């Protein structure tokens, strides 16, 4: 395969007819093989963990949540229609719904990445592989494919390329994509009708409202008991057999991905811990201030953690190394504030029952400022010791 590929290399090299498209050739070669290029000067450390491998490890970490999302999409489809189905039928239906969304994001992301690489004459970076993999996970299964294409273009171009490409963006491109959809096409990404393809044929015993939408309703009794009445027990939400965005419902699968990212040292456990600590702290305060047991503020943190996109955002979105804080102390502060803001928005804004996306995007903006103050504090301490 390598010999076959190298037959065409001369056409893409300097003075070749296709020299302008060398980034495309380099992308294919880098994906299939270890690049032959070596650092020629300057101090450096040889390490097999290049950008390509980092990106692939992130994708591997998200596979459990992605596969469960496929199953749950098919499961919710048949459940909402009141139909019985075998495991094979459920998986097949989920594949038919989810894979087109993924293929659109992958194709659109690749086109923009290659286009900018050719124009700027640099290598095609593998960052779009992760972005294109994460975008379908944070979308509802009924999202129109043309909207997916438009939103992915916006997320890649405006969220990343205008800042200089991979490693230069200040916002998470996948969340920029979701934010664009939320504000441009709100009916396609929110509301009870977006979680299954049988939204107009729901059986009487089934609701397509997500747990977050259910708990925000006026009800009697505790929020926990009301969720249970609607069929949302803690363990059901933890496992993920509930309506929601494709990859966000199973906290169990997400925690499996978190363990993989931490073991391989790809994502920061400090940020993840900070998010959960922040969420726990603000939820404890809300529980104390809750006017009565049936109020949304009375919902305990372990329920908040398995609802909506809290766990997925903490593991896969907040930990984006480019848009997150970089100092160790800054990572704790950054994650803590995300956890606090997400649940403040979720619990105090009845028009917007989920706050993880806005919390992370807002803290992406302040991450450099957090690092600046952390470094400034360290410099002052060192100056005092030097004196």
Q: Which properties best describe this structure?
A:
387 residues, 18 helices
What does this protein structure show overall?
- With 387 residues, the chain is mostly helical.
- It has 2 domains: 2-33 and 51-189, no CATH class; 216-382, no CATH class.
- It has 18 helices and no strands.
- The protein has helices at 2-6, 9-12, 22-32, 51-81, 87-120, 127-137, 145-157, 173-184, 186-189, 211-215, 223-229, 234-239, 251-263, 269-289, 301-305, 310-317, 328-348, 356-386.
- Helix 4 (51-81) runs antiparallel to helix 13, helix 5 (87-120) packs parallel to helix 7 and helix 17 packs antiparallel against helix 18.
- Mean pLDDT is 84; it is low at 198-207.
Helix content: 55-70%
Query: How would you spell out the order of helices and strands?
Result: HHHHHHHHHHHHHHHHHH
Shape: globular
Strand content: under 5%
User: How many discrete structural domains?
Assistant: 2
Number of strands: 0
What is the fold's blueprint, element by element?
Elements: H1 2-6, H2 9-12, H3 22-32, H4 51-81, H5 87-120, H6 127-137, H7 145-157, H8 173-184, H9 186-189, H10 211-215, H11 223-229, H12 234-239, H13 251-263, H14 269-289, H15 301-305, H16 310-317, H17 328-348, H18 356-386
Helix pairs in contact: 4-5, 4-6, 4-13, 5-6, 5-7, 6-8, 7-8, 8-18, 13-16, 14-17, 17-18
């Amino acid at each position: 395969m390598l010999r076959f590929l190298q037959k065409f290399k001369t056409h893409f090299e300097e003075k070749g007819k296709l020299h302008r498209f060398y980034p495309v050739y380099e992308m294919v070669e880098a994906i299939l093989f270890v690049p032959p290029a070596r650092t020629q000067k300057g101090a450096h450390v040889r390490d097999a963990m290049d950008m390509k491998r980092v990106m692939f490890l992130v994708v591997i970490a998200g596979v459990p949540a992605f596969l469960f999302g496929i199953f749950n999409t098919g499961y919710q489809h048949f459940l909402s229609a009141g139909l019985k189905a075998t495991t094979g039928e459920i998986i097949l239906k989920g594949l038919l719904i989810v894979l087109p969304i993924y293929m659109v994001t992958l194709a659109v992301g690749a086109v923009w990445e290659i286009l900018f690489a050719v124009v700027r004459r640099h290598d095609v970076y593998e960052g779009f592989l992760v972005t294109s993999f994460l975008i379908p996970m944070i979308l509802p299964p009924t999202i129109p494919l043309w909207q997916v294409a438009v939103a992915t273009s916006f997320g890649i171009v405006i969220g990343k390329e205008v800042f200089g490409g991979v490693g230069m963006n200040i916002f998470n491109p996948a969340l920029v994509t979701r934010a664009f959809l939320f504000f441009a096409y709100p009916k396609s990404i929110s509301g009870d009708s977006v979680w299954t393809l049988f939204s107009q044929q729901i059986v009487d015993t089934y609701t397509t409202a997500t747990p977050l939408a259910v708990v925000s309703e006026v009800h009697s009794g505790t929020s926990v008991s009301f969720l249970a009445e609607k069929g949302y027990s803690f363990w059901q939400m933890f496992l993920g057999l509930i309506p929601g965005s494709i990859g966000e419902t199973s906290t169990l699968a997400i925690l499996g991905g978190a363990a993989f990212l931490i073991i391989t040292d790809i994502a920061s456990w400090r940020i993840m811990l900070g998010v959960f600590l922040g969420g726990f702290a603000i939820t404890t305060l809300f529980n104390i201030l809750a006017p009565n047991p049936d109020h949304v503020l009375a919902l305990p943190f372990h329920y908040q953690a398995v609802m909506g996109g809290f766990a997925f955002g903490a593991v896969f979105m907040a930990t984006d190394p480019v848009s997150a804080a970089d100092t160790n102390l800054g990572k704790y502060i950054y994650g803590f504030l995300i956890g606090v803001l997400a649940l403040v928005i979720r619990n105090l804004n009845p028009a917007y029952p989920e706050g993880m996306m806005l919390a992370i995007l807002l803290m992406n903006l302040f991450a450099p400022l957090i690092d600046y103050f952390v470094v400034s504090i360290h410099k002052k301490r060192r100056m005092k010791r030097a004196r």
